[in-house]
Design brief:
Shape: globular
CATH class: Mainly Alpha
Strand content: under 5%
CATH superfamily: Amino acid/polyamine transporter I
Order of helices and strands: HHHHEEHHHHHHHHHHHHHHH
Structural class: mainly alpha
CATH topology: Amino acid/polyamine transporter I
Distance between the termini: 28 Å
Largest sheet: 2 strands, antiparallel
Number of helices: 19
Strand order of the largest sheet: 1-2
Helix content: 55-70%
Length: 516
Amino acid sequence: MSNNPHLKKELGLITMLGLGIGSILGSGIFGLPAVMGAVAGPSLITAIVIAAIITFFLGMPYAELGATYPMTGGPYSFPRKAMGDLGGFLMGWGYFLYLFIGTAAIIDIFVMYLGFYIPGLAVGDTLTPLGITIAVASIWIFTFINIFGVKWGGIYGVVTTIGKLIPLAIFFFVGLAYIKGDNFIPYMPFGFTGVTLAVALFFWSFTGFEAITIPGEEIKNPSRTIPLAMIFTIVIVAIVYCLIAFVFVGIIDWASLGVNPGDWKAIGKLASPIADVAKAIKLPWLAAIAAIGAIIATGGAGGSWVLFQARLPYAMAKDKLFWAPVSKVNKKYHTPIIALVFTSVLTSIILIAIPNFASVALIASVTGVLPYAAAVLSVIILRAVDKKTKRPFKLPFAKTTTLIGFILSTFIIYWASWPWTVIGSVLLLTGFIAYLFVKVKNWEIKRNIWIIVYLLGIMIVSYLGDPKFAFNNFLPVKPLGLLIFPYDLIILTIFSIFIYLWAYKVNIKAFKRGEQ
């Protein structure tokens, strides 16, 4: 028997629900409703529903993959199994960027809401030096919790998930008594384009669902637990988001906020929107509870993400596609301590270098979507080349469902808006350079060149596309407006179908040639 310690199976359905909901339900619902309102008005609620539907199409393929192949590092491991070392590395690279940058974004919001009680931590959505200090200290507290065992990290996720849902429930039920119907008219003041931009903004709030598959080797009865945890997590989070958004829009008191009725652009400038609208209706105690909920929510998500972000490089290192020491498991605590410390160091660097929520959240969203698209493709590839493996959960209408999911992934990357679509895509492409430092043999470039074409194609459409899909553009150029809505989406749909079929066929051929 090997003396090398292994990860323990200590995570059940309830724990995974706590971790799943905890990893998703964090910064977004407390920070984004105001920004979404500025571009979509009351129809931000519709944007949340659309984002939930997209998440479902992307999440269910993970449910099949996670139940069939319970491996640590799901978002990396599944594409690697379907697309080889280079394909897996590139998806792992993108997801790795998404994880440690996204964790920094969550901690930013955590500290900003903490500033509701401790003044001087942030100016607007940018942390002060004191705020940065507290942010870095927080990330290391979360790290130490997870070092002592995945069970304690899981318990932390369950406790903080319950702790964040209670304040949100109070905000919802109390707020119902103050709903003003006029706030919902007109419902779509900025047209459907505003709704789609809001979808891209809010999709960040749904990212994290795939984290349910990451600690696969540590989950009890994964064939049952993973699909159920995925379904329940997406449904519960979507319901919570819609209810809170409904109350947020309904209780806005324009006069008390000092803005003209219907001036949604002004709503977008609220620093702590949930607490601000509660305070405006003369309920300071509700504002305080909302702030507490935000602190618990972001703190809970931060703790969960620290657990998840370490498992990805750990899994890659086990496969000799990352820094070797990261694969070590501590003999006493049975946790990947080096991976935990390594990823938390990177998150700390982001917190210090870019202490701004909006700046890092958009980049993290773009880098996370490509691995989603790859997981969708992995389902049909692995069904074709690995027919003997039992699938405890099978995605219904897999070819149609995965194609829809792939198209929607493309939309999200595009809707992330100029210039963030380009910046995120360029960061993803740097994975080809990073691969040089890890493994230069067996490049498998033929089966993965579709990734380059895919990202370049989206960048080109973004540049030619609707100028309305530009958000916080700091570049000297903007979209040309040659492909306005809906022609941009038609082109992207056709392009997505082409890439989907190409990636599927080229990987099937690779397996036939004996490339594993």
